[in-house]
Amino acid sequence: MSIRLRLTAWYTGILAVTLLVFCASIYGIVRHNIFSEVKKKIIEQANPTLASLNITSIQGFDLTPDMNQRIRLEDAQIFWQTHSYISGLTQVSNGLKNRAMEFPVPEAEEMGSNPKAHFENVKVGGNQYSVLLVPITATTDSGKSSVIGLVELAANTASENRIMDQLWHVLLFGSIITILVASTFGLFLARTSMKPIGKVIKAADQIQTGNDLSVRIDYDGPQDEIGQLIGTVNRMLSRTETFYNELDDAYAAQRRFVSDASHELRTPLTTIRGNVDLLKKVWTQEDEGRSKLNPADMHLMSVEAISDIADEASRMSRLVNDMLSLARADAGQTIEKTAVEMEPLVTDVIRRAQFLPRKAEWLQGDLSALEDAVVEGDRDYLQQMLFIFIENAFKYTPSGKVIIDTLRNDGQLGIRIEDTGIGMERSEVEHIFDRFYRADQSRGVTPGTGLGLSIGKWIIDEHRGSVEVFTRKGEGTTFLIWLPATFNAAA
Question: What's the topology of domain 229-330?
Fold first, then answer.
């Protein structure tokens, strides 16, 4: 059973129970009030009737109200009937005579067990009567009280019973109609209220059966529980879409990484395998019956092959080390940091950089910003980062110069590495820190794996720094590395 049907059933059941209690209460209150008025009218005539009894015979106890009381009883539409348990004589009012009716008379013993006046409902001649039975008692010679007579005053309650029957039918049919109408409107309201939930289900089905995570639930109603639920679902879908896109980008990057790594590893492996096959053929040609090269040629060819193998093995080693560094970065490896004085570190890097392979002139600019500068970081990683950017400048500056200088700005130490090399297009700047990325004009021409700048960017990020790139094709590139630093730390 759906939620809307269960809600409707619950609402209908609660309404039915409420109406039942309400109708029973109304019916009971009205019935009590109506019959209380009838009984009150009878009781008002009871004492005057008893006071006006005409006892015509002491022996027979012929009980008869006087004429005035009989008239008052007739005006009040109250029937009367008296009975003497001594003589057995029963007298009735004219109304009862005209209708040829008598009220039943209980036995004296029965009245003796209940000598108090009380009401009984009696049905005579097809009509209901409310009868007040008032026993008449006398004290015998032995001092005991006994019932010697009975006065019965009655009022016809046919009209009251008809009113109660009509009220019962009105309450019954009114309740049924109310329940039917309430159930219909309740089902309508339940469907209307649950309609946004249907949109949530539909959106979830679309996401389940397809790849469109941009689906959102349209809702322009009040911000009640349903509105809050839809808002929460929309925000959850938005976060899911963002996470999925990030995961998809990461997966695409991983595939690109694997593809590029395979491509980069294939070249040195092919070279190594080719040289190994060449050496194998040269060294085994005598066994195969072919003419053997002279020792000088064989030595020269072997040295060249082994040199190629060593170069490619060294290249593979650098590539594997770079990939290992990036893998550690992806695994969330953090750098253990200590206070590093930047002046001796940068000075040592500048000195050692002049021995790197290069064609450009290596120049030192203003380094006064390094004075008393301390950075929270790792000395080895900071040196590696600087060498990466310096080597990158040397690789892409076939002629000209590479300059390093420093500057300060609001608690930041800036290290600027500027070259007059080939530069790059502005559209390429956003990709230079991607793994295995190299500008198209340099791919296959300039040696390298395309991982250096990615590692350098990771080291900068781990030190809570940033890097700015300024470039123009054919004019050169400038990298400005910013690191948070403390100056005059000793003071």
Answer: Helix Hairpins (1.10.287)
| Tens place of pLDDT per residue across the chain (491 aa) | 677 778 788 888 888 899 899 999 999 999 999 989 999 998 988 888 888 876 654 445 667 888 888 888 888 889 999 888 888 888 888 888 888 888 998 888 887 766 788 898 898 888 889 999 988 887 766 667 788 888 999 998 888 889 999 999 999 999 899 888 888 888 888 777 777 777 777 777 766 666 666 777 676 767 777 677 777 877 887 887 788 787 877 777 677 666 666 656 676 788 788 888 888 877 776 555 555 667 777 778 888 888 888 877 876 776 677 666 666 666 666 778 899 999 999 999 999 888 888 899 999 999 999 998 999 998 888 998 898 899 889 988 998 999 999 999 888 999 999 999 998 888 788 878 776 665 544 444 455 556 778 888 888 998 999 999 999 898 899 999 999 999 875 53
100 vs 388: CA distance, rounded Å: 130
Q: Where are the domains of the chain?
A: 3-164, 229-330, 338-487
> 53 and 150 in contact (C-beta within 8 Å)?
no
The rounded distance, in Å, linking the Cα atoms of 365 and 10 is 84
Q: How far is residue 402's CA from residue 418's CA, in Å, rounded to a whole number?
A: 6
Tokens of 335: 């750098």
The C-alpha atoms of residue 196 and residue 225 are separated, in whole angstroms, by 11
Q: Are 468 and 482 in contact (CB under 8 A)?
A: yes
Integer CA distances (angstroms), 127 to 46, 82, 325, in order: 22, 20, 108
338-487 adopts what CATH topology? Heat Shock Protein 90 (3.30.565)
Check whether domain 3-164 has CATH 3.30.450, yes or no: yes
Residue whose structure tokens are 């289900």: 201
Name the token pair of 72: 């008052």
**CA–CA–CA angle 426, 430, 436 (5° rounding):** 115
Least Cα distance to 230 among 213, 215, 212 occurs for 215
